[in-house]
Every structure is written in C-alpha cells, then in structure tokens.
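Hi everyone, sorry if this is the wrong subforum. Our group has a chain we'd like a structural model of before ordering constructs, and none of us has done structure prediction before. Sequence below.
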Amino acid sequence: MEFRNKLEEDCFQIANDIVGSSGSIKIEHNKKLSIDWSKKRSQITFSGLPSKEIDVLSLNLFESSDIYLLVSCKHFEGSRCSAMYIQEWGNIVDVFNRNTSGKTYFGLIVSSTGFQRGCESWAMQNNLGLIPPYKGKTIKWPYDIILKMFRRTLTTYIKVIGRNWKQFKQNSDFYWSIFKLNSDLEYEI
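Answer:
Right subforum, don't worry. Here is the predicted structure as tokens:
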C-alpha cells in the first residue's frame, strides 16, 4: 500500500489498530463513488484542473449499516491547511450524501500542521470534523498529540457517533462533537 505522507500512514495504522484487519478500512486515491440513480450506475470522480487528488481513509465501521467516515490527511511543509481544502472536502462529502441512497458520510480532516484562519467557519458550515481543533489555545500541535486526537476521535466515533449518527448529521453537530472531544488534549502536553 502506498501512502503519500507519514500522517496518512500513521492514521491508517491507528484505524487498523482500532477496527482490526476486517478489510473495511482502505486508502483510496481519486476516490470513485458509484451512485445508483433510478437503478442506473454512474461514476463520479474527483479530478480535473487543478488536480484534486484526494487521499481518503474510508471507514465503514458498522457491518449492518452504511455509515462512512471519510478522512482526509493533510501534511504541508511550512504552512497550515487552507480553507480551500476544507471547502473541497465539504463539497465531496456533500456530493456523497446527496447522491447515494441509504448511505451516510461524515467528513474529517486531519492536518499535521494545523489550520489557517477561515477553516473553522467552512468546517462548521459543512459539518466536518477538524483535527486538531482550530479554537484550541495551542496553534501548533505536537505530532503525537494530533495522532492521539485521531485515535480518540475514532474510538468515540465507533462507540457514540456512528451508533447515534442521526443526531450528529444536523447543523454543525459533528463538527462540535469532534471539537469538544479534542480541545482539552492541549493540556496533556
């Protein structure tokens, strides 16, 4: 399996540790999603100019349901993740939710370098989780704490959010649940 960066590899390993090697966790590049419109199969791909290669950690954690957590791992040398990536990820998750019957998608963005100003409002608008949380007192988070946040988020997602997914699907409830879950970790440094 090829990983674009260490963050993606580490997040995959954490997910694999938590869920196990059930085969439901996979990394996909330029995610292709099959959509059933009136029993016709169509393909939506996210590519074009400029290149929009999306690295996705796609987790279907519940065998009896179609609840997915789509995770985008962003690592930028010397800069934080910009609002453009948050907007793009919000659009992708929105397209998945609008065009797949019986499936629900949540989006999470993990950035090893944090987020720029403006990301939080786009994440709230699109109900995306951000790791690390933007409003925390610490702007630059240590890498091991970011991974700890990701581990904590997946564990909670499996135990609480995924099972009660309808209550987190509205407004910015998923965003705030991830924020509240991880904003205290800065004090453990």
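For your construct planning: The chain has one domain: 6-188. The domain at 6-188 is CATH 3.40.1350 (Trna Endonuclease; Chain: A, domain 1).
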